[in-house]
Amino acid sequence: MIQLKNIFQTYGKGHVLNDVSLDIPDNAITALIGANGAGKSTLLGVASRLLPVISGDVLLDNVNIRSIKTREVAKQIAVLKQTQSIGLKVTIAELVEFGRFPHCGGRLKAVDKEKIDESINFMKLNDIRDKFIDELSGGQRQRAFIAMILAQDTKYVFLDEPLNNLDIKYSVEMMHIIRKLVKRLNKTVVIVLHDINFASAYADYIVAMKDGKIINQGAVKDMVCSDVLNNVFDHNFNIIEHMGKRVCLYYGNHSHDLIPNFNSEDEFLNQIGHNHSATELDKSIEKSRRRDFFKFQYFVDKIKSKDKKTCSNENEIESRKEGTKMN
Amino acid sequence: MRQNILKNKRLLMIVLFILLFFTSLRIGAVSNVTFINLLKGNKLAWTILMSSRLPRTLAIILAASGLSVAGLIMQSISRNKFMSPSTAGATNAAGLGIIIAFITLSTQSGIIQTIFAFCFSLVSTLLFTSVINRIHVRDVVYIPLIGMMYGGLISSITTLLAYQFDVMHMMQTINNGSFARVGSYGMIYIIAIPLILAVIYSSKFSIIGLGEDFSKNLGLNYNRVVFLGLVIIALVSAASFTAVGPLPFIGLIIPNMTASFYGDNIKKTIIDLMLFGINFVFVCDIISRLIIFPFEMSVSLTISIIGGVIFMFYVIANIKRKNKSQIQSNDKLISRKNDKEPQIAHD
Fold this sequence. Notes:
The complex is a heterodimer.
Chain A: E1 2-10, E2 15-24, E3 29-34, H1 40-47, E4 55-60, E5 63-64, H2 70-76, E6 77-80, H3 92-98, H4 101-104, H5 110-122, H6 138-152, E7 156-160, H7 168-185, E8 188-192, H8 196-202, E9 205-210, E10 213-219, H9 220-223, H10 226-233, E11 238-242, E12 245-249, H11 265-271, H12 280-311, H13 313-326
Parallel strand pairs in A: 3-8, 3-9, 6-7, 7-8
Antiparallel strand pairs in A: 1-2, 1-4, 4-5, 9-10, 11-12
Helix pairs in contact in A: 3-5, 3-6, 5-6, 6-7
Chain B: H1 2-26, H2 35-40, H3 43-78, H4 90-105, H5 110-134, H6 142-164, H7 168-174, H8 192-200, H9 202-208, H10 212-217, H11 222-244, H12 250-262, H13 266-290, H14 299-334
Helix pairs in contact in B: 1-3, 1-13, 3-8, 3-11, 3-12, 3-13, 4-5, 4-6, 4-11, 5-11, 6-7, 8-11, 9-13, 12-13, 12-14, 13-14
């Protein structure tokens, strides 16, 4: 099990991680969620020893990670940062071979070759194993990197936003693969996810971060509810259940955008096709319609003011700006 | 199938290498160094072979393979295909070292020159890489440009010093790359050390080329490997500069051409890279010895001309490929619906 104890991490002025403690449950997918700049990637970096810990301890099976040789840690923990084009002519097979480095130091033995073939087959890449990485589609490339991680044969796998730059089909495929890693190969996966719905559908545990702190953690069913998520993302969540999975609707309630805007009563009357004529009947109709307009206007104003209170549009924009600044 | 092709390519390179090796031994002002004369035990032929022809050929082999490897490692460390010892100031710093060695100790001994050159180019590359890592350059192409300016700066300091201390004649000698410098070949054998190191650590250098996070994930001590790489680069630059002078373009075009033929997995390509570099310099050297026979041109001139042309071709091909891949990626978007990719079984 990987445990983080009182981690403080600073860059420049503020704390990027502020007294973070976390036990990562074995044999499950733990998703890290939070707004931009909440410290998810930093936490992942610290837990996976890519970033040196400034203050605090990371324990790997109750041993401080600092006292273990990096090569030994590499046999236990594999981490994959975002994998854009690497700009090198390396084939899939060669990339997967790199994964064996911690075990064989570059000299492949029979065991290593077996493991490489196994990983390539597991990721269904055997037909294209001699293709160069840069010739692949985004989904294939991501699979090739996962194959490398598999060849590394570690118990723990950390993935930093593996769905970035993947379209929907490949994203779903990737999450299925990650589920398979846990179910079939008994791995422990920690994953940074941007899309809360992917976390809801595929993760076992969710850790929510905000301003460098863990503000909530727990099983998916306890975490995916509007009380928790509203707080994490400073945004209104609407949660529905579909086929046993919870789905978050977070597109906001900007209903006033859909309401037609009328500047005057006449405009309203024109819009609803009112005929201006002089008969008594028409006049009475016109009167009632003018009353309708005022009723309508009253409701519109009410909806708009309600929206402003709950959606707090400006706040959301500001928090986003802060997020980008921190990045 | 791919491996077969690679094997054939390597075999071709080895055959070419053997042919060029003997041709290189055969060429010279004295024409009696023939196979038959050697077999007969002709003393003059043997003396010329052992004291002039063979050292020269070995110098070509070591300098060419050393510079190719140094360029490769530099490109791998900086993750930039346009880097090489000569575009990062390493060669210029070696020149500065030699001039300072001459001014302060007034010696032309090879070892002292090499030590000075090594120290200067190591410090210079360390300085350059650490500065480059701190500043954020928008486009990687600017890094070698900055490197060349930096190299120019060092060169001008060298010239200034040489002018001040009245040793301009040294400048001319050291800046003229040639394999005809009788007697200074001794230092070239030092290159064998970094070459062996590079082969031993080749798999680590290929991993370094994939980035710092990637290397750390695989349990590699990134900083240590980078430092080792810089030491190899400095050693090769210093020794080759002292012994044969500047050989431009080798560190730049050979790794690029090898990468386009064999790929970027250093562990697998390092031998091919060396063979390729050696054959290239052999050809250039033979040309510069034959063109005004029995005199010879400076080999750095021939290399500059041929290398420059190849480099231009490489750059143009690169641009064309980029345009093509853009068109292809547009096509891909259109034809994605017909994509018949193996489906992953979902469970």
